[in-house]
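Database export, one record per block. Field names are fixed; values are copied verbatim from the stored entry.
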Amino acid sequence: MKVMVTRPAREAHDWVHRLQEAGLVASSLPLIDIGGSADVHRVTQAWEQLPSFNAVMFVSANAVDYFFALKPASALAHWAQLAIKKRAFVTGPGSHAALLRAGVDPSMIDAPDAGQGQFDSEALWAVMGHRVVPGYRVLVVRGSTFMAKTTDSDGAGVGRDWFSKQVLSAGGEVEFVVSYQRRCPALTPEVHASIQSAVVDKAVWLFSSSEAIANLVALAPQQHWNGHRAVCTHTRIAQAARAAGFGVVCESRPILADVVASIESLQ
């Protein structure tokens, strides 16, 4: 049974390797392209304004990587040096690892317990919500989306809005900065061939974002998905897969063992 991993290219490569190690036949078909922010000045400006915030929430590992890639030369090397009490909030282990690579002090990071397997804004709020008091200022570093219309995006759509609403409800303040862009990939001959191969092989589609589903539908508008299977790593993503017409949709926690078990259950 073939598995199509639809994450952005860098993340897809890692997941393909892990699934292959677990004994599955996995291939990469990135359905989201990632690029830098169109407004570099705004990102560098956000760096300059960091001392005015109590914490920074990163919606993804890409948000971390592209934000730190635009760190001005005047910025100090490490987060703890930049502001001793500056906290960083992330929703999952990938973003947590990106912060560590960027030199952020682990003691300054708030994230859901990796062992629980729930990596979204709700799980993050359960961990750090107590920190937000009236006047608490949070900078949300996110991506902008240039693609087919969608309702959620790996924490950058509904999830992000939910998080900011919680901060505001607790009396806090929220500002946003876009550090990267998400796009629908071009329909190159290679992408077209990969989609058609997956369709012919009745591959299981692994979705970690409803943006990927929307992009797939945009890239193959004549394709009917009622005879195809999908494993989705969040309830909202599963809802998007069903709305797109996938005949069999299985929800899974976004950890390897659960994803493998869900895929194998579809054999």
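Remark 1: Confidence is low (pLDDT under 50) at residues 147-159.
Remark 2: The CA atoms of residues 65 and 101 lie 9 Å apart.
End of record.
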